[in-house]
Specification:
The chain is an all-beta fold and about 120 residues long. The chain is about 0% helix and about 50% strand. Strands 2, 4, 5, 6, 9, 10 and 11 form a 7-stranded mixed beta sheet that branches. A hairpin with a 6-residue loop joins strand 5 and strand 6. It is globular, with a radius of gyration of 14 Å.
């Protein structure tokens, strides 16, 4: 089992910045790909950014490219999401999730409880 706890959410004005953190425990963090996902009211959950277990490969949703940066510190068992130039459309519940990078066909099986981001116009 992997336990994930997000922090860093809150209310911010459009154009502002926030940094989310997700602390992992329970298994060897460096064996897991990590991702940030979000779900806005009335919408499906979407992938925001992902990072491979080694940290060398990242992917972003088109809507956040150039504004958000995902990173990880395997020594601290933590993944981050730096969010700049926030827009009201970024308002959502943000989750971090983990996927075993060494298990064939694995999916994001471990999820945090989520942290709310609200961007005011």
């Amino acid at each position: 089992q992997v336990q994930l706890v997000e922090s860093g959410g809150g209310l911010v004005q459009a154009g502002g910045s926030l940094r989310l953190s997700c602390a992992a425990s329970g298994r060897t963090f460096s064996l897991y790909d990590m991702g940030w996902f979000r779900q806005a009211p009335g919408k499906e959950r979407e992938s925001v950014a992902t990072i491979k277990y080694h940290g060398g490969t990242t992917n972003y949703a088109d809507s956040v490219k150039g504004r958000f940066t995902i990173s990880r510190d395997n020594a601290k068992n933590t993944v981050y999401l730096q969010m700049n130039s926030l827009k009201p459309d970024d308002t959502a519940l943000y989750y971090c999730a983990a996927r075993n990078a060494f298990k064939s066909g694995s999916s994001y099986d471990y999820w945090g409880q989520g942290t709310q981001i609200t961007v005011s116009s």
